[in-house]
Amino acid sequence: MSSAGGLSRRRVAGTSSPNSDDTPTPGVPNGPSPNGTVVTHAGSAFEGGSKVACDPRDLDQVQEDSRHGGRMPRLTIMEEVLLLGLKDKHGYLSFWNDSISYALRGCILIELALRRRIALVKDSNQRRSPLTDRLVEVIDDKQTGETILDEALKMMKGQESDRMSISGWIDLLSGETWNVMKIGYQLKQVRERLAKGLVDKGVLRTEKRNFLLFDMATHPVADVRTKEAIVTRAVSLLTATTSAVPPSALDKEGTQCRVTRAVCLVCASYAASVLDNAFGRLTYEDREAAFQRCDEVLAEFACWPFGSASGTATSAGRRRESMKIGMGNTAPSGRESVLGLVQEVKREMNGEGDLGFQLIAGVLEVLSKLDSLL
């Protein structure tokens, strides 16, 4: 029977109407079951149920979030790093930044590791190798919903027969290889694709600007509050002077691994040379102190186990420390407060031997040497 609006009335098991026959609806049990219990239709709007239908993908997403310790954030780490590097009104990156492309490829591995898609190979012989030379394997090839992440994951899955190291994957994804047989593993136009993804999420918009000889698509910031939130998180984490992590430095409550994500954001932004864009409101002394703390954070997390840096620092940090000594400033470093941050990250790990977090440490070690690589 059809109504005037074109809707058709569906027959539901356990109900009857004067105009209906006794033929049961296909796929819906009607009447008593073999063990004597009566099977009825659950969740029907005709029987007063509160839910008519549900998408099984929603249930899968809830189960995945609970398994990974929280829901996935709105923006990936790659998108946040790119957003820090973009000029708000002009919508393009600095033409002189050679570090961001390599750093974004490292962020892809970090994001896949945080989503529990990849990890280091569990092999006792591999533990003797340097962290950056240890092999990467795919532990879950389920798609993430992010185009670039899924493309990288598919390439890694296809290379399972000949697994590669952390530094090897970053080089291949960046196109930094002399092997012509591996050139197809390069992820092309990552910055432009990330920007278009941010346009789809309503964070950026697309405009066309004329640069004398040619026109180029630019992506100015459309949602200023989203970028301000990222800047606030980075500044809050790097200007804190206590071991407690300030709530303003973290993403929303319930986000998966939000302390680890905050650490990876500032470290990747530091390696990509876009972190200074977040320090525009700080004084010169506060900027130098924030950079020094970021260098200490990167040194403590670019090793395994976390917090065992034993005084190591990046080349930029050593130069900054020598400048402070030359200016007569011999104040002690804030390593104690950084170790408090290490303890918060360890609470988000699946035990001391978490192979996913070991992969993150290896990526951060590669990014800490980015000055010498480039």
UniProtKB/TrEMBL annotation:
The protein's location, in the record's own words, is:
Golgi apparatus membrane
UniProt GO MF annotations: phosphatidylinositol-4-phosphate binding
Q: Where is the composition biased (Polar residues)?
A: 14-23
Q: Report one GO cellular component.
A: Golgi cisterna
Which is one Pfam family of this protein? GPP34
The UniProt regions of compositional bias labelled Basic and acidic residues, in chain numbering, are 54-68
**Which UniProt keywords are listed?**
Golgi apparatus, Lipid-binding, Membrane
UniProt keyword annotation of Membrane present: yes
Instruction: Give the start-end ranges of region Disordered.
Output: 1-68
Instruction: Tell me the superkingdom of the source.
Output: Eukaryota
Q: Which InterPro entries match?
A: GPP34-like (IPR008628), GPP34-like_sf (IPR038261)
What are the recorded Gene Ontology BP terms? Answer: Golgi organization; Golgi to plasma membrane protein transport; Golgi vesicle budding; retrograde vesicle-mediated transport, Golgi to endoplasmic reticulum
Task: Look up and give the membrane topology term.
Answer: Peripheral membrane protein
Task: Work out whether the entry's keyword set contains Membrane.
Answer: yes
Recorded family membership: Belongs to the GOLPH3/VPS74 family.
Query: Can you name this protein?
Result: Golgi phospho protein 3
Protein source organism: Rhizopogon vinicolor AM-OR11-026
